[in-house]
From TrEMBL:
Residues 70-110 form the B box-type domain. One of its GO terms (molecular function) is zinc ion binding. The gene is LOC114663000. Keywords: Coiled coil, Metal-binding, Zinc, Zinc-finger. This is Tripartite motif-containing protein 16-like. InterPro entries: E3_ubiq-ligase_TRIM/RNF, TRIM8/14/16/25/29/45/65_CC, Znf_B-box.
Length: 458
């Protein structure tokens, strides 16, 4: 189809369409150009190009098909068509540039310059294909990493949910025990007070009677009778009731109060956390976090260093350690040792400071590793046997024997001598007391280290 056969609708195509060249002579609605003049450096529609075809003054002008790239071929310095290639500066230039800035340079025709550059096309194409393949592999790697990341997030959500559930249950249980203890203590003290009141009221009634009898005796005129009766009367009063009437209002021991205050501080800190990425600035987020050869994904609470107390924030950090597949943190189920005046909780807290360990409430149906606390209440061998009967055969057990004593030097026994079960990986002795809670003794420190090492290995 010739340019003269182009319909009016096609000529009025908007300038926003790719490849469409507008007539630069049209005013108002622009028509589509049918030719570009390389001499005038302007594109014309069918109407405005007629002067070039009919007027002898334009005989020497070069008309070509509409060139959409014409504006890019005009020299910005001299407003002339760039028709040659400077090999020295590797750029297209006009003839005036050749005479001025490039007169000492190696000048080529566009055809010769194209021929040289054409030789670089295969290498460039190979580079494009190579980078496309690298990007495809990177996309696969990122998708795999993202899938692993989502798995980690699901696991962490489950871990934190179970941890908080355990805390809620533990706190609710402790609350129930404390309230029960207070209520029982209140009832005992109230009974004591009521008994004392009855005794005092009864004694008061008796004293009133004695007072009446004494008043009658003082009115007698028989001195001999008075002297014979009064000493016996006075002796019959007996001793004054000296029973203690004070009520002990110190319901809590210092250790319990300290533990509750410590728990409150931890909860206050936990409510003020924020998420923080610990990877270096500029690193690739998912790939660096999931596939660096020195890391393992962890969510743990830690204080930010160097922040004033008034601005201190707790941080949930994302750290990644350890080569190879993503390693999970030790998952330990806990049973026993509840009534050890907070010694068991302190033992678990110190273990957690050594390494983030995920604790769960004991469930015999899914347990793999159990941290069994055994409180010594009667005979050591009997107590150990009773505690071990709670765990099914085939479950790995770390046995912590809790000895109640005010003095660490009083315990010299090695409880492992009383344990013959093969499922027990380790037996350690620990000391506690109602006044001191968990002892800061070398025996307890050694027990913590041994338990820590066994947990990591399993």
């Amino acid at each position: 189809m010739s340019s003269n056969a182009i319909s009016m609708s096609e000529r009025r195509l908007g300038s926003g369409m790719p490849g469409v060249v507008e007539c630069q002579e049209c005013t108002g609605s622009k028509q589509m150009a049918v030719n570009s003049c390389l001499t005038c450096l302007i594109s014309f529609c069918e109407i405005h190009v007629q002067s070039h075809k009919e007027n002898e003054a334009f005989v020497g002008h070069r008309l070509v098909a509409p060139d959409v790239n014409l504006p890019q071929k005009i020299c910005s310095k001299h407003h002339m068509l760039m028709e040659v290639f400077c090999r020295t500066d590797q750029e297209s230039i006009c003839y005036k540039c050749v005479c001025l800035e490039h007169k000492t340079h190696k000048i080529l025709t566009p055809e010769a310059g194209r021929s040289e550059k054409q030789e670089e096309v295969p290498e460039t194409m190979q580079e494009i294909q190579k980078r496309m393949k690298m990007n495809e592999e990177k996309v696969k790697e990122i998708k795999t990493a993202l899938s692993e990341f989502k798995t980690i997030v699901e696991e962490k959500n489950k871990e934190y949910e179970e941890t908080f559930d355990f805390l809620f249950q533990s706190i609710a249980r402790k609350k129930k025990e404390v309230i029960k203890s207070i209520t029982e203590y209140e009832q005992r003290e109230e009974e004591k007070v009521k008994d004392l009141i009855k005794k005092l009221e009864k004694e008061t009634d008796e004293l009133k009677m004695r007072g009446t009898e004494l008043e009658k005796l003082t009115k007698t005129d028989d001195h001999i009778h008075f002297l014979q009766t009064f000493p016996a009367f006075r002796a019959s009063l007996g001793e004054r009731n000296t029973e203690d009437t004070a009520i002990n209002i110190n319901l809590f021991q210092d250790q319990l109060i300290n533990n509750l205050n410590y728990l409150k501080k931890l909860l206050d800190k936990l409510s003020n956390f924020k998420f923080e990425e610990t990877t270096d600035p500029g690193s690739s987020h998912i790939l660096e976090n999931l596939h660096q050869p020195t890391a393992m994904k962890e969510l743990k609470i830690a204080e930010r260093n160097g922040v004033p107390d008034s601005e201190e924030k707790d941080v949930i950090k994302h750290d990644y350690e350890g080569p190879g597949p993503l390693r999970k943190y030790p998952n330990v189920q806990v049973i026993g040792g509840e009534n050890t005046f907070g010694a068991r909780e302190e033992f678990l807290r110190r273990l957690d400071e050594m390494k983030s360990i995920r604790y769960q409430t004991f469930s015999d149906t899914k347990s793999k590793l159990v941290l069994l606390f055994c409180s010594v209440v009667s005979r050591l061998g009997k107590d150990i046997s009773h505690a071990l009967r709670q765990i099914s055969a085939g479950t790995k057990i770390i046995l912590v024997i809790m000895h109640h004593t005010p003095d660490p030097r009083l315990i010299l026994v090695d409880s492992s001598k009383f344990v013959e079960e093969k499922d027990v990986l380790l037996t350690v002795d620990c000391l506690f007391h109602e006044q001191r809670g968990f002892h800061n003794s070398s025996l307890n420190q050694e027990a913590l280290k041994k338990v820590f090492n066994v947990i990591l290995k399993n």
